[in-house]
Amino acid sequence: MEERVHKIISNSGYCSRRHAEELIKKGRVFVNGNKIKIGDKADPEKDIIEVNGERIQKINRIYIMLNKPKNYEVSMAPNTKSVLSLIPIKERIFPVGRLDKNTTGLLLLTNDGDFANKIMHPRYKKEKTYFVKLDKRIAREDIEKIEKGIKLKDGWIKGKIKMFQKDQLEITVQEGKKHIIKRLFFKLGYYVKELSRVRIGPLKMNVKIGKWRYLTKKEVEELMK
Predict the structure, then answer these.
(1) For an engineered disulfide with 162, which of 74, 106, 170, 221 has Cβ 3.0 to 4.6 Å away?
(2) Pairing mode, if any, of strands 63-68 and 49-51?
(3) pLDDT band at 58 (very low <50, low <70, confident <90, very high)
(4) What are the CA-CA distances from residue 132 to residues 49, 105, 110, 145, 181 (Å)?
């Protein structure tokens, strides 16, 4: 059965869909020896699909939870201190979304492009919860502003707040834009001293910093809903 080639590449675990599209645009993807373009389809059961000269193969699906430490890049680029170095397995995997270098917490990694898309794409509205430590006590009026919605340069963001101490809280959002939590609080006059993601959808972080584990079948099914 034919599918779009960028989806086949992503489902093989080679890279994310977005990266696969970039590779196609750069002319690095061939089907049966012919260079393809965005939107072209192929049959993974019959056609020979090559990326950068490497043939795409079907693989077993892998789903991993990592408690990301500080000073690691969420990147597949060579010569970087990547989170991938913390997971010494032979299979190729890629991060689902991003966390800043100095942000810690729950990061998912997989070789399943459909799974990654389900977590990242805005239309699925997966909630993400972060622990935040600010440089000062947050005002009640600012909590109310966040819960009603704050306008940033790339759109509105609204969050649900749970307070712990005067300068420590949890915020739950659906948006996944770059630096979204830090930009939200900066807009209100706060500096984020510590930031850690503690939940994605129904999945809560439950491994120690720098450690990882495979997700259970049930956890994967719940995240895919």
Answers:
(1) 170
(2) unpaired
(3) confident
(4) 44, 11, 26, 17, 9
Taking CA atoms, 160 is separated from 127, 149, 171, 188, in Å, by 10, 10, 5, 16
What does the alpha-carbon distance between residue 207 and residue 196 come to, in Å, rounded to a whole number? 13
**Structure confidence by residue, pLDDT tens digits, 63-73:** 999 999 999 99
8 Å CB contact between 83 and 71:
no
**Residue whose tokens read 């120690």:** 208
Pseudo-torsion of CA 16, 18, 19, 20, nearest 10°? 80
Q: Which of 190, 149, 192, 155 is nearest to 176 (CA)?
A: 155
CA atoms of 112 and 122, how far apart (whole Å): 18
Reported pTM: 0.78
Q: Tens of pLDDT along 128-151?
A: 999 999 999 999 999 999 999 999
**Strands 3-4, 150-152: pairing kind:** unpaired
Q: Could you give the domains of the chain? A: 3-55 (3.10.290.10), 63-121+204-223 (3.30.70.580), 127-200 (3.30.70.1560)
Distance CA 69, CA 155 (A): 29
pLDDT in tens, 21-42: 999 999 999 999 999 999 999 9
- Which residues does the annotation mark as catalytic? 100
Q: Are strands 128-134 and 29-31 parallel, antiparallel or unpaired?
A: unpaired
The answer to whether 126 touches 222, Cβ cutoff 8 Å, is no
